[in-house]
Amino acid sequence: MSEPERPAEPPPRPDTDTAQALPTAQVVRRERPSLVWLLPIIALAVGGWLVVKTLAERGPTITIDFQSAAGLQAGKTKVKYKDVDIGTVTHIDVSTDLDHVTVTAELRHGSEQFLAEDTRFWVARPRITASQVSGLETLLSGAFVAVDPGGSSKQRRHFEGLTNPPVITTDVPGRRFRLRSDTLGSLNPGAPVYYRQIQVGQVVSFTLDDDGGAVTIDVFINSPQDQLVHTNTRFWNASGIDLELGADGVTLDTQSLVSVLVGGVAFDTPDDLAATGAPAPADQFFPLYPSRSAANEPVYLHKERYLMVFNGSVRGLHVGAPVSLRGIQIGRVVDVALKFDDRKLDFFIPVLVEVEPERIGFAEPREDILKADPDVVRKLIDNGLRAQLKTGNLLTGALYIDLDFYPDAPPAKLSERNGYRVVPTLPTPLEAVTAKVAAILDKVNALPIEVIGNDLRASAAGVRELLGSAELRGAIRELSAILADVRGFTSQLNSELAPELDALLASLKGTLDEANRTLVNANDLIGPDAPLSVEAVRTMREVSAAARSLRVLSDYLERHPEALIQGKGGGR
Questions:
Q1: pLDDT top residue among 464 and 258
Q2: How far apart are CA 179 and CA 236, in angstroms?
Q3: Using CB atoms within 10 A of its CB, is residue 222 exposed (0-12), middle (13-18) or buried (19+)?
Q4: What pTM does this model have?
């Protein structure tokens, strides 16, 4: 059993003096809280409001990968759009693979519109290239991260920074077009694009096709000049200096000094087309021609290939050389090869040419003449059509193929080889002259030169023997005597007959003078105003009057013969 609880002992009572010395606490109950607690509550509310406001006004945070952080500083470098601060770089870190740097930037509230999927970022710093100068304002303000907002509806927070600033930003009005070329040439991003020698755009970028067969070049044409690009517009490479030496002289074509140094592209719409095409849509592909002359060349779809075989030298004939018909280009050389004929142990050169029949017009509208008459080429060859190499430039020695009709050419037929129709050829004019000279030399070599020489020597010996004979010397002496007699006779005639001839000539001259004077006097006598002429005229008039009187008398006597006896009566 448990022990019973003991009653608690009363506390010791303090001494009377101690109790009087200690103060006595009194508990006072208040109905309202103290105002002291109001200040912490207000401070907590203000702090919470500031935190909420800061979080609400805080912009998005993005990361950008750059190849280098040159010129960037965390906490100082700004993010700008059109030179307006929209954010600040907060952190710069190196990637884990040490391949690039990652820049973290905090943007202002409302900057989400700049964060489209195709937005581009780059570091704006001073750049000087052959085609442009940019970023000079950063020499004083320092480098900054520039942004070019995209137009995509999708957003993102991580971006790949550009190594170089874009040539054209999205806020520039205009359109892009794409050019295809076999080679890039001297074109680079930023190279100018010209229209009638006025810069209207720039080269934006270039890429090599996946198969490596061509280069795609993107160009941007500013508005409103982009409306000048039509579906039939021609683009050509205007880089450097286009120097052409032809029959008309030297032709120099260039756009500007900038295009000579850094390259350029020019375009125009040919005036010789029937109608201007419709405006070209953005991103349409155009071929890039190597020069203005190539761009102005008409485009023909129908092409035919022929083979021409030459046996002489074709030095100076290159791929692309023109094929002309009476001076008008109708095609070009596609391939030149060297073949060996093991049966003749000789070399020959087949030349493959590409002819564009549409270049040839017809007197009548018969564009299908080649289809309607497949043997027209055979007929032309039967009529004397031949191919011949000729010199196109005396300075460079370039050759071209000339087609013309040679009625005196040796007969030839249209043949086929390796699936191509073979057009017969003629040797070059120099080769023809060389062949003629060789033929002449062959004929000369065929002559019996030795026999002719022996005959000439024998003839010369006979001539020498004749010249040295006594008979020839005697004949020469007799001829000398005859010539001496002739000279003497001539001297005698000169001394004896000359004075008589002079006197005779003088007398004859005097006679002629007298005859001349007599004719003058006779002219004076019988002239129209001479007295003799006047008297003669008067006499002739009187004779004429007498003749008329005799005629009247004879008529009267014929009617009245009795008048001879009786006389004229008074009544008659």
A1: 464
A2: 10
A3: middle
A4: 0.50
**CA–CA separation, 502 and 508 (whole Å):** 10
- Report yes or no: 305 and 330 within 8 Å, Cβ to Cβ: no
Last residue of a domain, one of 258, 273, 296: 296
Among residues 160, 182, 212, which one ends one of the domains?
160
pLDDT of residue 481: 82
Query: Do 212 and 239 fall into the same domain?
Result: yes
Distance, in Å, from the CA atom of 187 to the CA atom of 289, rounded to the nearest integer, reads 13
Cα–Cα distance measured from residue 246 to residue 343, given in angstroms and rounded to the nearest whole number: 42
**Does residue 48 lie within any of the structural domains?**
no
Q: What is the DSSP letter of 182?
A: S
Asked if residues 222 and 172 have their Cβ atoms less than 8 Å apart, the reply is yes
Is the bond into 224 cis (omega within 30 degrees of 0)?
Answer: yes
Give the Cα separation of 313 and 9 in Å (integer). Answer: 146
Asked if residue 203 lies in contact with residue 281, where contact means CB atoms within 8 angstroms, the answer is no
Buried b / exposed e along 39-53 (16+ C-beta atoms within 10 A): eeeeeeeeeeeeeee
Alpha carbon distance 171, 153 (integer Å): 16
- Which tokens belong to 278? 């419709």
433 and 311 housed in the same domain: yes
Distance CA 151, CA 117 (A): 8
Residues in the chain: 572
Q: Report helix angle 470-526 to 531-559, nearest 10.
A: 70
Report the C-alpha gap between 559 and 405 in whole angstroms. 98
Rounded distance between C-alpha atoms, residue 356 and residue 303, angstroms: 5
Specify the residue for token string 């002309």: 324
Same domain assignment for residues 411 and 288: no
Q: Is residue 249 part of a domain?
A: yes
Same domain? 308 vs 431: yes
Task: Provide the pLDDT confidence category of residue 436 given band limits of 50, 70 and 90.
Answer: low
The CA-atom distances, in angstroms, between 443 and each of 388, 410, 449 are: 27, 21, 11
- Tens digits of per-residue pLDDT, 298-355? 767 778 889 999 988 888 888 888 898 888 888 889 999 888 888 888 888 899 998 8
Q: Considering the domain boundaries, does residue 21 fall inside one?
A: no
Contacts of 301 (CB under 8 A, 6+ apart): 358
Residue bearing the bigger pLDDT, 463 or 154:
154
In a domain, residue 526? The reply is no
Residue 407's φ and ψ, nearest 5 degrees, are -60, -30
Q: Domain range spanning residue 133? A: 54-160
Query: By CB neighbour count within 10 A (0-12 exposed, 13-18 middle, 19+ buried), where does 81 fall?
Result: middle
H, E, C per residue of 273-291: CCCCCCECCCCCEEEEECC
